[in-house]
């Protein structure tokens, strides 16, 4: 079980250098030159970068939603993730009101058991706070290693929690060393706008975007940030899509409030006009928050570059166009919300971000891997290339060219939202804990090898906002 990777250029969130990586018993044993390699399998990474495996902090695999269940499960989803250079995912575990949190965790373990090819962990949804939930939260943190909780401010009558729940969750999470995540859109206003649109006979997919304008995301983001400041807690805003939300995050951080923001490849590269595609094809691009006018993309790229947004999640939530998205024909509110991005998250950021000079190579590693490990209690086990870390590694050809297509992707879903996009850079081989999962672009691992990861509590030491309060 010894391997040595030679001739590659190692890239971490801080450094780029030529060196060898010696792997022993699932871990990186050493990084350096002229390492002892007797008995080790030699892997030649000539002409390639070696990155720490990607960490996708935002997936919804086999999740019931919108009257159906997401198409990719822990097997197809993690296989697709691995092909794309991701070696860890953190999936959202949904809870039911009135039922123990532990029941939900059991359900998610049952879904993932014997399926994943890479390591995985869970965030836990909080939709109500009562005595039982308050008793369970510390147990979930200590026993299950779940150190991040998700509160939905949207999806009225489905997942939406009220502000009291959000505030109480922020206070409780802070007390026990956890991080709160929010889906920040004002669900009440969206509900009003949706009903009005339908009354006016506006039923096409584009009305999904028009009834969830950027203001509803900006308002909810600002509210969540203020409540976080009041609770002296910390917040992670998922899938930030627009200038209004970025503005609120910047304002909060400048005021010393501990807020972190994630965006997704779809918001960086696609825009609202996709929802106007004919023949109901716009439904392929229905997710929440919705795609925005194109100018928002520059704001998101700049925020990533400047560290005002820190991470890239896929928000993988895939539904087939035929048989699932079409549940919403004649009523856009019934189109299942979500899209397929787990596979292309890393490559698309490399191609559009690094290759086009929008972010540096080291920022890219930070955004797709290191920062996620730090924020979600996985660092330094995951998210870097250093002695003692898990040997989760991606051997990446920075010059390979390919065209994204549903014909060649590995997700189970029947379309790709980036269909036809030409990108540069591709994972060639992917190792998880020292084992090849993808070797020379072929799957070589069995479902079930992926392990559940218990995560550490939020660590102020490894992750504090860089901004200084200047008042
Ligand atoms: O439309 C989306 N984003 N679907 C997944 C659930 C969520 O809101 O993250
Ligand atoms: Zn969401
Ligand atoms: Zn999501």
Could you describe the 3D structure shown?
- This protein has 471 residues and is an alpha/beta fold.
- It has a domain at 53-375: TIM Barrel (Alpha-Beta Barrel), CATH 3.20.20.140.
- The chain is 29% helix and 23% strand.
- The chain is built from 12 helices and 21 strands.
- The strands form 4 sheets. Strands 8-11-12-13-14-15-16-17 form an 8-stranded parallel β-sheet. A 7-stranded mixed β-sheet has the order 3-2-7-18-19-20-21. It has a 4-stranded mixed β-sheet with strand order 5-4-1-6, with no helix packed on it.
- Helix 4 packs across helix 7 and helix 7 packs parallel to helix 8.
- The longest helix is centred in the middle third of the chain and has 18 residues, at 214-231.
- The protein is globular and about 70 Å long.
- One zinc ion binds at residues 58, 60, 315, 317.
Kindly provide the radius of gyration, computed on alpha-carbon positions and rounded to a whole number of angstroms.
21 Å
Instruction: Trace the largest sheet across and list its strands.
Output: 8-11-12-13-14-15-16-17
Portion of residues in beta strands equals 15-25%
If classified by CATH, what would the architecture of the domain at 53-375 be? Alpha-Beta Barrel
Ligands, deduplicated? N-(aminocarbonyl)-beta-alanine, zinc ion
Q: Quote the average pLDDT.
A: 97
What characterizes the major β-sheet? 8 strands, parallel
CATH fold annotation of the domain at 53-375:
TIM Barrel
Tell me the name of the CATH homologous superfamily of the domain at 53-375: Metal-dependent hydrolases
Low-pLDDT residue intervals, each spanning 5 or more residues: 467-471
N- and C-termini, Cα separation? 56 Å
Identify the CATH class of the domain at 53-375: Alpha Beta
Strands, total number: 21
Number of helices: 12
- Amount of helix: 25-40%
Structural category is alpha/beta
Shape: globular
